Amino acid sequence: MSDKDFEARHLETLDRDLGRFSNLERAAAYTGRPLVGPGIALVFIVLVGLAASLFLGQGNNALIVTVAAGFGAYMALNIGANDVANNMGPAVGANALTMGGAIAIAAIFESAGALIAGGDVVSTISKGIIAPAGLADSTVFIWAMMAALLSSALWVNLATWIGAPVSTTHSVVGGVMGAGIAAAGLGAVSWGTMGAIAASWVISPALGGLCAAGFLWFIKARIIYRDDKIAAARVWVPVLVGIMAGAFAAYLALKGLKHLISVTLGLALLIGLVLGVATWLTMIPVIRRQSRGLENRNKSLKVLFGIPLVVSAALLSFAHGANDVANAVGPLAAIVAASQTGSFTEAVSIPFWVMLIGAFGISFGLFLFGPKLIRMVGSQITKLNPMRAYCVALSAAITVIVASWLGLPVSSTHIAVGAVFGVGFFREWDSERRLRRAHIAIPDSPRVGPEERRRRKLVRRSHVLTIVAAWIVTVPAAAILSAVLFTGIRILAM
């Protein structure tokens, strides 16, 4: 064999070996990809626990504070993975935002809402669900809150895994109830409060769905079904954007900025009215400029709703960060206060570092695990375009204001997803109505059979059933899990 042949064979063997190594590296990267997110999340939880132990874990309760901080970080990650999808899903599903843009906007505005306008005071027993007198001492209270925090986080994690957007606040409520029952019996529970929370399972999605369907009907009747769609849009899109601005101004004044200023419902509505009218007048020339040269078809209308939809998603995220994060990290604040002072019967302030855990945890959870639920809410329940997604966002703000005025307990998660249901079912009804009209106008036209009608359903029933079932079992599932965890913690601590 010549030297050239030997060298060629050697190089060929080397290429094959390098190819095997390359395939091995690709296979390792592919199999390891699902572990990247959980790995980063675990590092975040460990770092939060270490930071808490270094800066706050002084005295006999150092271990409790460290473990509780880790549980709080885990809960915040799950809020980002699950709850934020309700705000960003419609905008992504309507292609008004990319997934990366949605995650960036949500991370910024959720964090800003939590840190700037987060709730300053929460009840140590989470809104009066458990009577403080029923708990023996601060140690039992700390165990109960730790069980509630961990159980609610585990439940939201499971819901995210199966693809069901659930209320994190309801998860915390269920966790507190279950731990309280395990610690002090059924008599310790305020069943009136729990009845109001159970009522919100029906009230929230029903109000959100009806409001969103009403706005979609208005847009179809006044803009989409008009002969000159662009002329109609020039009249009504500024009005709708003004309604959105007024609704969000009232929403943020009433719910999101309570930490900074005290606002009554009447003042919030007045603020919303002033800003709504100002926005309406401002948008009239803006929409006229945007609509120049647009063709008279539905696709052109999407351009006019794109920017208002992105702004509404950002404002929803800010309000969510301000209003809901405190409910989720409230048990952590209660644990820290009880471990440091020994008191657990008074309302406690949420420390800034606890809100930091909530803000950063939401951002990490959204970035690592959020896309799955964003896709579910935005595109897998029903098909959304900018007009339909705009109706979802607008109804979420208005429904909260109406519910506050009526004194009804509602869940922002249930409202947003209920609004998506409302849009989808309205589209089905409207499609059937137009089909019947076509048959009346043309009696000899071919009829659509039952199988074809089922195929044309615009809302995926499997997702609806999964989500509704998850809503129904959230409080009892979190309660049972919390009771088991509390019993285990008490046995280990004795």
Q: In a nutshell, what does this entry contain?
A:
The protein has about 500 residues and is mainly α. The protein is about 80% helix and about 0% strand.
Number of strands: 2
Query: What would the principal axes of the Cα set say about the shape?
Result: elongated
Distance linking N and C termini:
80 Å
Q: Give the low-confidence spans.
A: 27-33
Main sheet record: 2 strands, antiparallel
Q: How many domain modules? A: 1
Placed side by side, the strands forming the largest sheet appear as 1-2
Work out the strand percent.
under 5%
Please bin the fraction of helical residues. Answer: over 70%
Average pLDDT metric: 78
Q: Number of DSSP helices?
A: 16
Structural class by sheet pairing and helices: mainly alpha
Membrane topology: Multi-pass membrane protein
InterPro entries: Phos_transporter
GO molecular function, one term: phosphate transmembrane transporter activity
Keywords: Membrane, Phosphate transport, Transmembrane, Transmembrane helix, Transport
